[in-house]
Amino acid sequence: MDVRQSVVLAVGVGVGLLTAAAAYKLYVRSSQMKNSKQLVKGWKACGVVSQIHIFPIKSCQGIQVEEADACEMGLVNGELQDRSFMVVNENNNFLHARIHPTMVLIKVSISGNKVELTAPSTESITFPILSQSGTEVKVRVWGDEVTAFDCGDQAAQWLSQYIFQKDSGARLVHLPYTRVSPRPLKTKPCFPWMRKTDGAVFTDYTPFHLLSTESVQDLNSRLTDEKEVSTLNFRPTITISGCQPYEEDEWRFIRIGEEAVFRYVNGCSRCVLTTIDPAAGIKDPEQEPLQTLRKYRLAEDPLLRKAIGESPLLGINLSLDQPGRIRVSDVVYVGQL
Prior knowledge:
By secondary structure, the chain is α+β, with helices and mostly antiparallel strands. Helix content is about 20%, strand content about 30%. It contains seven helices and 19 strands. A seven-stranded mixed β-barrel has the order 1-14-13-17-16-15-19. It has a four-stranded antiparallel sheet with strand order 5-4-3-18, with no helix packed on it.
């Protein structure tokens, strides 16, 4: 069987999780041909964009927008840039909602050079963005060191009071897209589509995360009514509808509208963050929906299972193949390989 036949065979696999062996056959051809213009033979409509979210501060509340520019480092809408801010502790390691779940309730708005933060039972704060004159600081995201700009003592005290109920312990840093290059990803054999250049800076992995409403609806059909979740439990930047549940697992190149093209990097492995109610900032005591996902969404491939363990898969991580503007109601196309 030649490489072309292998690709056809792999694309023909039904909805579900690709094994590493099948994915590798696709990767051989993609690594040779590099991008969608060379690899994709045609485009097939598979749904529409139903929601777009930008999360300006990592682990904090997202902002729903009607359109955004898909850039190398993430989604941009005017002054909003996805995960261009991050909260760090006194050792400059990033803080996140997995340990501090009420962080998901922190709202941010940006106007001109001013940032406003609000949170329940806390007075709001407004402060200037200091990315041109602020102090440079080395911060760490999952052990990787990144240079960012400190946002000042006023923001630090507000965040410290909200998260730790004291005047110190948290600081806010900022790294605008114009001053940044991607944080290199650590590639692994179990992620054959991943490239070192697929990372962003403050995101866990890639600049974009796509999830279908149908996948979440199917998950909810397996949960009791009081445990049902929304797509926001999974914090996607791009939410689509109109496909079959988990169909996004199989998509390798995705075009949204007429311009923006995204490339599959890997399935998104899920953690305790999914158990946090995005409207209340409280973890589910029974760890739902994570426990239910583990019953039917664990990796099937042995290499991948060894790498991610008991973390179930839901949604896909994407990198940018071709920039462009995306809008709610845009048709979503999957590349035919």
